[in-house]
Design a protein that fits this description.
Elements lengths: L36 E6 L2 E10 L2 E6 L2 E3 L2 H9 L6 H4 L6
Antiparallel strand pairs: 1-2, 2-3, 3-4
């Protein structure tokens, strides 16, 4: 019978895509102030979204509808489940 030594398996590390670039997080977008108005044309229709304060909380009005966030209002306008409200309404960090 031939004796064999167990072979050592080298550890494998996943390569980093950009080792020279540190990970960064997206910049936080400050909340709009009550009274701010956002306008957007979408599929031939104009929309005006107003930031309001109701019961001490920031809310958004689009016509007679009330939304808790820019994203909720953008979802209602577009019908897309996955959409960035700040980007849709033009309130993104640069």
């Amino acid at each position: 019978m031939i004796e064999t030594k167990p072979t050592e398996v080298p550890s494998i590390k996943a390569p980093t895509l950009r080792p020279d670039k540190p990970k960064t997080r997206a910049k936080a977008v400050p909340a709009p102030r009550p009274g701010a108005v956002f306008g957007r044309d979408y599929k031939g229709k104009s929309y005006k979204l107003r930031a309001v304060e109701e019961n001490g909380k920031l809310a958004f009005r689009l016509g007679s509808k009330k939304f808790d966030s820019l994203t909720a209002a953008a979802k209602d306008v577009t019908g897309y489940a996955s959409i960035s409200g700040p980007m849709f309404w033009g309130k993104s960090a640069k």
